[in-house]
# Entry
Amino acid sequence: MSNDSTVFTAIDEDLEVTGGDPFAEPDADSDERVFNAIGGDWDDIVGEVGSRPEERIVVNMGPQHPSTHGVLRLILEIEGETVTEARAGIGYLHTGIEKNMEFRSWVQGVTFCTRMDYVMPLFTETAYCLAVEKLLGITDDIPARASAIRVLMMELNRITSHLVCMGTGGMELGATTVMTVGFRERERILSLFEMISGLRMNHAYIRPGGVAQDLPAGAIQAIRETIPELRKGFGELELLMLENPILKGRMVGTGHLDLTGCMALGITGPMLRSAGYPLDLRKSQPYCGYEKYDFEVLTRTGADAYDRLWLRVKEMWESLKIVEQVIDELQNNPGPVMVADKKIAWPARLAVGPDGMGNSPKHIKEIMGSSMESLIHHFKLVTEGFRVPPGQVYVAVESPKGELGCHAVSDGGTRPYRVHFREPSFNNLQAVAAMCEGAQIADVIVAVASIDPVMGGVDR
# Structure
């Protein structure tokens, strides 16, 4: 802002610019420039103010604004209601997770990375464990049942992530029913996560070599009983949103980012597919046995907020289709859930009992009472961890928000030398300026919601 004082007063005449303020204090500077907004057309008023280059208004949206997905700071330069410049300010949630992983064993790293994007923790766990397994050279030794359980958990997590995106986005636009329905369906899946892993989020369930424990008794039946309820809930969300004329009027054409912009900025996930490019790592670079399952990679061509919403709704149906195929496979494949190499496999045999998740009494009895070698091995593997051969790898998975990659570097020790994640929320936030500049302030909320950023993944 300039040093000149700007005052607006309302009178029933046209806009006037005077050399003094008739309402100022007697001792006020009479040379201050005053804008008297006295009726007339709003466009004329905005044009008069905006014609003076020194008259710029900078608005900080966040980092505590309820409509910016956590501690995201948006720095907006505006002329009237129009955004002329938009920048994203990040770093308010920085936890140092990647650096902390350098001071923990390879297995303990799962407990850290699962807390990055807390809306899709199982994808981060999987990417990290696939990278560790590639360094170890045991990718092909992972039991089929463990890979199937990973796919099951990831696809259920994909649904919960999309539900959070739609629920919070609906709430930001004033459609609170979308939030209540979305979070109701999410609760059904979180109950399944709690049954299987013992936790609703930050599971640390997927481990290098497999998963922490097999599905408990009754888990597959519980999933089968939940699927019809989810189908009903998805149907309600479709009826509430996809053909709603108010929602379409609010979202169609908003937050536009075409294919050229996506490619230039490294945008992936629903944002890229909304521009017509069918990139999905589950199809192009299959992992965890995704090549066995039947599902479609859906695209749209509008490249706007509505198309991203449409894709997320339809992707939930595709994830449900994969879940049904996986539980049929698990029903007929009892198999182990951890790699056979005892120098790598986590020694505890976890079981969910009345008091929660703990070690199997049978396993404790064996190592404590009959095998000194097992006890020593258990102690060394838990406290020191296994050694990983020197090298570096990059492994990527298709998360709900796009390509989630893990670059892991080993110097041959029991701890990572460096772990770095390509977090899709971080990359996708680059699009804020391209999507928001030239739009209205209210459209910024819609555009950012369609990106679906989670700051835990951005500020890691």
